[in-house]
Design a protein that fits this description.
The protein is mainly alpha-helical and 79 residues long. The protein contains four helices and two strands, in the order βαααβα. The protein has helices at residues 12-23, 27-35, 40-46, 57-77; strands at residues 6-9, 49-52. Strands 1-2 form a two-stranded parallel ribbon. The longest helix is centred in the last third of the chain and has 21 residues, at 57-77. The protein starts with 5 loop residues before the first strand and ends with a helix.
């Protein structure tokens, strides 16, 4: 079995605005949680794929579909 990681990248301001709307977090909560994890730079460095989620939903979906296609192709070529 082969594992791959995907890091979804988004600028801090967008990330914070989304978290305020979705989870009612404030900046302090975001900071607290991010400090308990690997840095975002480290996560991106370790990831097999990086998806930019700073644009509109359609653009992000196209990027996700591209990664998924690559993952499925890769999985098929290992058999």
């Amino acid at each position: 079995m082969l594992f791959r990681s995907v890091f979804v990248e988004v600028p801090r301001e967008i990330r914070l605005n989304r978290l305020i709307k979705a989870r009612q977090w404030d900046e302090e909560e975001l900071d607290k949680r991010e400090k308990l994890q690997f840095s975002l730079d480290k996560k991106a460095q370790l990831a097999d794929y990086v998806v930019d989620n700073s644009s509109d939903q359609a653009s992000t979906l196209r990027l996700i579909q591209r990664v998924l296609s690559q993952l499925l192709f890769s999985a098929g070529s290992t058999h």
